[in-house]
Structure prediction request, 929 residues.
Amino acid sequence: MLPAIVLITLALAPLGLLARTGPRPLVGWALALLPALSFALLLFQLPQVTGTTQIREVIPWVPAMGVELNFALDGLSLLFALVITGIGTLIIGYAGHYMHDDPGLGRFLLYLLLFMGAMLGLVLAGNVLTMFIFWELTSVTSYLLIGYKHDYPGARRGALQSLVITAGGGLALLLGLLILGEGARQAGVAPNQIYNFDAIIAAGDAIKAGPLYTPALLLILVGAFTKSAQFPFHFWLPGAMQAPTPASAFLHSATMVKAGVYLLARLAPGLGDTPLWNAALVLVGGFTFAFGALVATRKDDIKALLAYTTLSMLGGLIMLIGLGGKYAAEAVVVNILAHALYKSALFMIAGIIDHEAGSRDLRQLGGLRRMMPATAFFIALALLSQMGIPVFFGFVGKELLIEAALSSPLADPLRYAALTAIVVAAVGYIIAAWRLFKYAFLGTPSPTLAQRHHVADPRGMLVPPAIPALLSIIIPLALLPWASQLLAPAASVIYGKEIGFKLALWHGVNSALMISSAAILVGAVLARFERPLAAMPPHLPAWADGATLLDRLLAGVDRVGALITRSLQTGQLRRYMLYNTITLLLITGVPFVLYVLPGLTFFSPDPQLRVYEAFAAALIPIAVVATIRAESRLSAIIAVGVVGAMVSLFFVLFSAPDLALTQLLIEVLSTVFLLLVFSILPARFATLSSNTTRMRDAILAGMVGLLVAGLVLATATTTSFEPLAPYYLENSLAKGKGQNVVNVILVDFRGFDTMGEVTVLLTALLGIYGLLRMRREKR
Amino acid sequence: MYDSIILRSVARLMLPILLMLAVFMLLRGHNLPGGGFIGGLVASCAIILQLVAFGPDFARRVLRVNYLSLAAFGVFFAAVWGLPALLTGQPYMTAFWIPDPIPGVGKIGTPVLFDLGVFFGVVGVTTQIALLLAEERNPREASDAGTAAP
Prediction:
């Protein structure tokens, strides 16, 4: 069932193109049935899944190397899969409304479904390589989604930056995972199991003690931090807001950016709880947590504001994983669910504001409360949950966050750092949320907005954000036992041991509640002064922005590339021949001189040498010299022909009739070709290059000649390998059904080589065809 | 091209003989010197001889095919005969043979058909190159014929 869910989602993605016809919102909802079905199927698995029991399905691929398509369902992957399919259902329905007049909706839904399939594969993978394939697929499909409006330079830039950052991190991740597998092998894991999450986690202590742990972990962290937009890789996430709002709501609130969190959460019981792990996750995550929240308080674009709170929350989750302990595991899963709910609602409502009011810039909005009362209500629910106001789901998450930091087993400096980050972020969230609501919904409409007609609550479009917004208040009030049943197995996976917990709204008056109340109070006070706060320094200079730096880096790569191309691709054949010759001398000649040459015997007198053989052999160098010295083209052709004829003669003398025939025919044909070419050129050679150039070319050509001669000598006299010839001679008739061994080799034993050669011939023809046709068209 | 009565007479006479030799070389290849590559070269020699004697327009008409397409077809045809092996789960290009030889042709199997593909490929490539070069030599002649390219 698991591979089916992933592969069917991917295979049915082209159904998205159906949205090109028919009533848009309806088609959107019809397509939303696909993820809804997966959601229902996964929900049925809930009773069977606990932290340690799994549903596992394996499709072998390269069994000898432990490579397989391996899908597994446990508490953690079930939570993520439900979030992906659940939010996905709403997003697709929403997209049908939001983009109802966009001619590209079909293409957009295609990308969205592909992305969803990739994301499902990522969280359902039971093997790091399977996970990595889908990890990369999410990078590629999100590139398509972000760059959907590809005629806007901003969208292209955002898409490219996200691809460069996440795919670059993906490279580091791949390396890290392979090293991790090697570490698992050294830790005694069976070779065909080294890439399985379970085996890696079970062997965690041995891997941590091994030498490969640190490099593997550092590389994996780069992969996870880039994907989850941690400082200093955070800047691609706000840039990715160029995507159409449904994509932002899906990718950058509920799914893609959580991939890094997911990976770290999954590896935590095996690889976690070392000084490096704790310090890296707590410091990077904690800094991003506070930094994102603070930047969010200054943003005027609603989507940018939400993007910064998103990367902040991702930092919070990563920090929690670094903190370790039972409460941290619980806090991670609760916050994942709470964040997915309120953030998807917020993004979708941001889209509604943009759609209805024509802008998502806080400076151009205002007073929407009267025009769009229902929208204002739902965004208020989501914002209150984000702020962590009591009885909302976000409050439950924040209490656990503080509890996790207070009860963490880590050393005090890290704990206090975490606690500071939590308080700063909590205050930041309150200010950011207050600003958003105040400038968009309160006050009086801006002049541009007042002139706009028909600014009102949408109907169908409001349903998808209303559901997660309502759940943000209904779950803590009524559904906590149900949510505990879903979240406890997920937390158990992160913790590594089965933990049963019951979520509760009220834990009594404890230090967590005190801290969180204090944060709310400080936030409420500071929110009054948000205007002077936003004007306060520090303001980063423009060049220090990560996106600008990356732009410069990419432009630099382009410039270097252009420089190399210009200096190498001169368009002159003699230049290319020079490069090829020098390359051959370097990569073949140098190792030949170092390793092969000392072992060669050059002169072994052959008692059977006959006079005519010596005569033919002597004729070849004479003809070569004649070719070089020739003044007219015709005599050069004739002299080259002598060389070819003598070589064929040798084939005859050494009983290779096939080779002799081929050589002779090739000689004839090349003579004709040369004649055809030379008949365009003057009859006599002209001396155009300087003597130094000619000397250089002569030396290079001589060296290549000596090299090739040496290689032939080496292959003919080597004894390092068992010769192949006897095998061919014995099996030609039996297995190849032919007595002509040469031909059987050509068409059967080494048929693949012949296939390649014929293909090369055809390619050469196409090259010549193109060259001559282009010349002809130029005239 | 070269207005020589001797060359033209010999060329006309040699065309069928060389083409038959080419097919002969192709068929005997599996047991005696020859094969698709050599056969293909002989056939293109036959056509290029016409090219030299009568010019590119005549040479184009010798086989009544587009040599570029022939080259592509040959490579395709050769590649196709590696596929049957995949259907039986064996590696690409594993050979299959008809048990009994066919009179006048010899044993038939996928390697022989592969060789036939090589034959077409070689004929197409070499002849087309020669034609391109010959037409390059005298662009006016080619444009008069109305077909600068096949």
Remarks:
- The mean pLDDT of chain A is 85.
